[in-house]
């Protein structure tokens, strides 16, 4: 048995657990935080709503990346360690882990390329009181739009968790 093989069970547990946790964490912003922000939001206090959104976003931004890196590292390691293993499904565990390893960190480019110009930048401008910030109604609409985009991010990391779960199950006799 290769020396690194003894780390496979731990990597599988850590990878699946961290991906599952991160999915729930990201989803909580869409399901819990944004409804709270929207509860008291009106055209009169859109800047305050943008500040509340920014606080929630900054919390997530500081906490989520280490989990995404942990998932990706575990899944990448597992993809290499399970090469040549034929599982119960038409797709090998190695391919499932490799897919998970790509999906997990894909939340970062999605955030930068898709969310950045469409919702993040305008909402930050509104929270900071920038003169080129969106109007009040547009700000409230952007918060709703961000919530949907955030759900996509949760789906990306959730898909990585599902891929790793299938990879684990594929190896069970």
Automatic annotation (TrEMBL):
Subcellular localization, as worded in the UniProt entry: Membrane
Gene Ontology annotations for the cellular component aspect, listed alphabetically: membrane
Domain of life: Eukaryota
Keywords: Membrane, Transmembrane, Transmembrane helix
Keyword Cell membrane in record: no
Membrane topology type: Multi-pass membrane protein
Stored Pfam families: Anthrone_oxy
Membrane spanning residue stretches: 7-34, 63-82, 94-115, 151-170
Keyword Amino-acid biosynthesis: no
Family: Belongs to the anthrone oxygenase family.
PANTHER family the record matches: ANTHRONE OXYGENASE ENCC (PTHR35042), DUF1772-DOMAIN-CONTAINING PROTEIN (PTHR35042:SF1)
UniProt protein name: Noranthrone monooxygenase
Organism the protein comes from: Cercospora beticola
